[in-house]
Each structure stands twice: as structure tokens, then as C-alpha cells.
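Consider the record:
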Amino acid sequence: MVRFLSSFGWLVVVVILGAFVWFAIEISQPVERTLQEDLVVGTIRHAAELDSQGPLLGYVALFAGPATGRRPEYPVDDKLPEQDGSFALDADVLDGKRFFLLARIETAQERLFCETIALPEMRVDDDGQWVVAATGEPLPPKHVVVDTSTPCSY
């Protein structure tokens, strides 16, 4: 048994190392593949006029319903964007077909500025992916710039 382990010990190490590398690659899906499964992806940026009011904190949320009228109490999905400003938000089929995106920047003085973007009517295709109902195409990425023109309280 000792002779077997000493002869094939390197093989065991290679197999374990190979399994670890394979596992690491499988669990770290490429960003593009992950983002394609979400309802809306994009980036949030702040206007240059907010630079002096930093540090700034970004926030994005996806709400069900039309962008007009009162904002629903709870978002379908929300998060802080990544360091580069990118985000990906998802919804469930039960959340409906109409959505809007809220992008918010909070300043160091606790002032809030928002931008709201109405999304077109959406549907889930045969592959289970969100697409624009009228075209059947995925929703293009949304790139939001928040400036001081729209203060908000939420």
C-alpha cells in the first residue's frame, strides 16, 4: 500500500488540483452569461456636479407597475451597484409585465437625487428569458446618469 501511494501520489495530487480548477471555473460564471438572465442590466453614474458632495452612494431598484403615480412600497429587486457602477436586477413572472427602474445617489450630506426610467412591457420567452413584449428581443442595457435636477425623498 505504501509503495502504491508513493508511486501514484503525484497522480492523486493532479486529480485533486484538476477537480479544484474545474470547480472554480464552473462556479465563476462569466458576467455576460449571468447578466443575460436578468430583466434589466446597466450602469449607474453620477453627474460631475455631484463630485464635490462625496462620498456618494448609489442604489438601484426595480419596481413592478408603471412609472407614473405613487411608487410601490417594496421593490421587486434592489441592490447597491458594483464598484464600476454596473448592476443587474431580476423579476419573477408573477411580478407582472410592466416595470420601472429607480436609480438613486445619496450624498455625504444625506441628500438624495433620483432618476426613474420606465421600461417597455416585458414578457418571458419560451427559453424563460425576459424580452421586450413588442420585439421579442432582450432589453438593451440601461445607462443612468443621476444629477441634481431631481431630488427625491426615498
Notes: The chain has two domains: 1-35, 38-146. The CA atoms of residues 45 and 145 lie 5 Å apart.
